[in-house]
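A reminder from the course coordinator: this example appears on the midterm review sheet, so study it carefully.

Given structure:
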């Protein structure tokens, strides 16, 4: 059975879960600023930035507290979410990449096709260190013939008038190198 790897997808940081302590503190602040259980017009707008919450979140906390008081129950403004909340991890099977020969050159597009995920997700895996580039150190970039031809070109560029005593390269003013395709 292939090994499954789980990756947590990165989301925006705006949707942070509010801790129960912050919820209780914001409710206590609302109670302290209210008069006889009634809030002024600007109280929620003042309390929300104080705790780093949105106005709607503070309104929900206040409404839950009022409902509990109306029913005669103990006020509970804690989060109703239990266990692991948030975006679920997506299983990724990296066994498909292990089956590909290391000598075969691959691009990020090839890796994304083999894994069945997008290119941006492959880049995220690389940034996290879950995937890394592989270079084949055994296969040299230059063959023996290429090395020989390059060395011959360098020898040909030595100025023939300067060879016996003080060899130096020609000025290459009469050569044009075009790098256009």
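Designed residues:
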């Amino acid at each position: 059975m292939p090994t499954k790897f789980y990756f947590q997808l990165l989301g925006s940081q705006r949707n942070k879960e509010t801790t129960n302590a912050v919820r209780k503190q914001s409710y206590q602040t609302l109670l302290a600023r209210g008069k006889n259980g009634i809030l002024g017009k600007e109280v929620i707008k003042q309390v929300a930035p104080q705790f780093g919450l949105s106005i709607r979140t503070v309104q929900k906390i206040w409404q839950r507290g009022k409902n509990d008081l109306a029913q005669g129950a103990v006020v509970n403004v804690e989060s109703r979410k239990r266990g692991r909340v948030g975006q679920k991890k997506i299983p990724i099977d990296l066994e498909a990449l292990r089956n590909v020969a290391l000598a075969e050159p691959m691009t990020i597009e090839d890796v994304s096709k083999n894994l069945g995920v997008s290119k941006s997700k492959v880049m995220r895996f690389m940034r996290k260190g879950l995937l890394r580039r592989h270079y084949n150190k055994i296969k040299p970039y230059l063959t023996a013939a290429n090395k020989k031809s390059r060395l011959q070109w360098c020898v040909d560029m030595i100025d023939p008038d300067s060879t016996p005593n003080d060899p130096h390269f020609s000025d290459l003013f009469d050569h044009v190198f075009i790098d256009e395709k």
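Residues 1-13 have pLDDT under 50 and may be disordered. The longest helix spans residues 55-71.
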